[in-house]
């Protein structure tokens, strides 16, 4: 049986060659039939509103089986963390993989209020959730400091620093594929 993955896009354009599009195509190619990868279009990605994104995420997850994998790219990761820390998700999720996700409220440049996480959010996440963080060392959209902050807030998470400055990972992210395959083997 194929392991199910729900991938939530970054904000902004979501065409095949825009935003998370190239990273999704890369994952489809690299995961080659071993996984069922879903990537629903998010509502109003140019002007995201958390409640609308939450509805879309929950709809994309309705018929998932136990031990699914959630991947959030940039704002998509923020939306997943907020949802998982505020609501119990069924079926059980085995892993959350965040790629270049901002920590809203970290400073005045990062104040998108409807995506802010509640104080102590990490204690409300599912106990057995396997969390991995992927951040470019020199990302000029979401700096590596955001990954370091999440690693501090999520002590059981594994932080992977990716060489370079990519935010969209248009040419792929082999470390992500490696992590997904590791999770499948558990």
Automatic annotation (TrEMBL):
Keyword Translocase: no
Keywords: Hydrolase
Gene3D superfamilies given in the database record: alpha/beta hydrolase
Cross-referenced SUPFAM superfamilies: alpha/beta-Hydrolases
Top-level taxon of origin: Bacteria
Coiled coil: none
GO molecular function: hydrolase activity
Any Pfam family the entry gives: Ser_hydrolase
PANTHER family, per the entry: SERINE HYDROLASE RBBP9 (PTHR15394)
Name this polypeptide is given: Serine hydrolase family protein
Organism: Planococcus glaciei
Lineage: Bacteria, Bacillati, Bacillota, Bacilli, Bacillales
